[in-house]
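Notes from the 1:1 (GR / supervisor)

We went over the backlog. Supervisor wanted to see one worked example end to end before approving the batch request, so GR pasted a single chain during the call. The sequence is below; no edits were made to it. Supervisor asked that the structure be written out right there so they could see what the output format looks like.
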Amino acid sequence: MTSLPNRPNTALIVIDMQRGVVADAFEVDRVVDNINTLVDKARTERVPVIWVQHSDDELAEGSDAWQYLDDLQRAEGEPVVSKRYGDSFEETDLEKILAERHVGRLVVTGAQTDACVRSTLHGALARGYDATLVADGHTTEDMRQWGSPIGPDQAIAYTNLYWGFSNAPGRAGSVLPAAEIDFSPVG
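Structure output shown during the call:
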């Protein structure tokens, strides 16, 4: 249960599923299908869907690479959080958006597993949120060329493993497949 008072609601977060971010990512089509399933479910249940979009010197805002994948469509009124750091909370309006919607639990999807997804999960837990990682709803590219000792499938599996054991006083991390996600209010 979240340690944030009066925050019973859940939100779906879709992180950086942008053309340039996932161009070489692992099993992108499967991940997109699972995210779309959750987006549809969240909309049906009137659960906030929040889109996070990264930009930096290598991913220029407005460029083709910066655009979200065509298969993932934001509905009118769904917020977009623009970020420049891995943690989606860092120097963004994400916390304000979540507070306005009384959200204390996040369901996290997106890319890259071993960068922005992990940073956002840890940022959420440190700020008092419960954070559920969708086991089959995140992806990454092969980072071995930059020194990672493991491939993308192993990075995803490892993140799914350890996040399920993450917790702090009054809040917890969890990992569930898309088919088992429940958006019901907390508490």
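Supervisor's comment: The chain has a mean pLDDT of 96.
Batch request approved.
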